[in-house]
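Table S2 (text version). Query chain:
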Amino acid sequence: MSEQMNHPQSDQDQADRRNFLKASAAAAGLTVAPGVLLYGIAHSRPEDQAVSDKVRWGMLIDTTKCAADCNACVTACNTENALEGRTGPQDSQWIRKVSIKNLQTGAEHHLPMPCQHCEHPPCVDVCPTGASFKRADGIVLVDRHICIGCRYCMMACPYKARSFVHEPLTEQNPEVPRGKGCVESCTFCVQRVDRDETPACVEACTADGHMAMLFGDLNDPESEIAKALKGQRTTEIRADLRLNTGVRYQGI
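Corresponding structure-token output:
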């Protein structure tokens, strides 16, 4: 070890280093304040408007209105987030259609399966770096700047909702930064939510006339989704895990 490395840093050196780290964090869009976003540059919300736990975003999916041959939600997600084969055959899929069948009645249902945005997300519990985290408003995200690609979160997710970026990325959406070697999943189109817009999948489902997906604030008793959940029987996938998912299903 050289003599220079053995010497402790001067006060000025340490100050310069702190200033450099602050500047780097600001350039990357990082912050350590509770409730403030940690998702790269993909946000339009002013920095002084931290998200709040007064809101909890959620989604209600009516499987009786979800057509088996419709993939409007998947296509919209891929387009919005610049997915769909952009990194080759192993590219991520943030929402997928799955089919389930009641073995007793023979009834079949076809439903979208995004990240469930759990109140108690297993992916966050197992992440060794804190890259997987839950915003104050309930949206579960991955900070690509500190994701080390260990994929523990993928193993912990009971919904198989997470993907790993295997290959270099091209044609990215500047609002949705992605990175090779990182894990990623549905973000509820957080870049749109922070502009007071609905997720792309919900918008596409509505435009297609199916009206099978409803998005809103679960904490607001006057919101359409809160009223629907109160007045109808809904199902939480793997309710036995007691994760209190932000995505609920009707008709199954």
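Notes on Table S2: The mean pLDDT is 84. The beta strands are 57-62, 95-101, 108-114, 132-134, 140-142, 162-164, 183-185, 213-217, 247-250.
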